[in-house]
Amino acid sequence: MDYPNRLEWQTRCEFNAYCKRALRNELIDACRERKRRQLREVIFSDLTPQEERQLYTVDKYFQDGNEEAFCAGGLKITAKLLAEALHTLPNEKRQAVLLYYFFNMTDVEIAEAMKIPRSTVQYRRTSSFELLKRYLEERADEWND
Questions:
Q1: Is residue 75 classed as helix, strand or coil in its secondary structure?
Q2: Coil, strand or helix at 39
Q3: CB of 94 within 8 A of CB of 86?
Q4: Which end of the chain has less neighbouring CB within 10 Å, N or C?
Q5: Between helices 91-101 and 107-114, what is the axis angle to 10°?
Q6: 124 burial type by CB count under 10 A (0-12 exposed, 13-18 middle, 19+ buried)
Q7: CB 86 within 8 A of CB 117
């Protein structure tokens, strides 16, 4: 009558052997992967300056000195000055301008999103230009070539 216990014991031993074999194979795979990665690994101190520069970028938008600018109406307008001008707008006008020009939304889409009439959106956009123009004319430097 030992037969059911023996069969259970044999099944446990087979399962135990299967688990050990699976773990051993996973260990072998992990060791191979680690060796493969070590062969391809590069230490930062071993990189040339040119290779180092390929690993990062530097934003130079608002650095003083060599800030890129464009000429509009004889005035030098920089990205920083334009951002300041946008921040001077009242919130609802700034939102209409940003949605229209930076998110490519139509006046109808903006009106639906803001739950206001389309004509109000158009008014806010066009009146913002006057405010922006005035701000930029007062603060922009004369363009010197």
A1: strand
A2: helix
A3: yes
A4: C
A5: 140
A6: buried
A7: no
Measured between alpha carbons, how far is 145 from 139 in angstroms, rounded to an integer? 18
- The type of residue at 85 is A
* Each residue's pLDDT tens digit, 35-86: 999 988 888 888 888 888 888 887 766 665 555 677 766 777 777 888 888 9
Alpha-carbon gap, residue 116 to 122, rounded angstroms:
11
Tokens standing for residue 104? 């490519």
pTM: 0.48
Structure-block tokens of residue 5: 């216990």
CA distance 145 to 5: 97
Q: How many CB atoms lie within 10 A of CB 49?
A: 6
Tell me how far apart the alpha carbons of residues 119 and 59 are, in angstroms, rounded to a whole number. Answer: 39
Q: How far is CA 112 from CA 100, 117, 124, in A?
A: 13, 8, 15
Please tell me whether residue 11 adopts helix, strand or coil conformation.
helix
The DSSP 8-state label assigned to residue 106 in this structure reads -
Residue 45: phi and psi, rounded to 5, are -70, -15
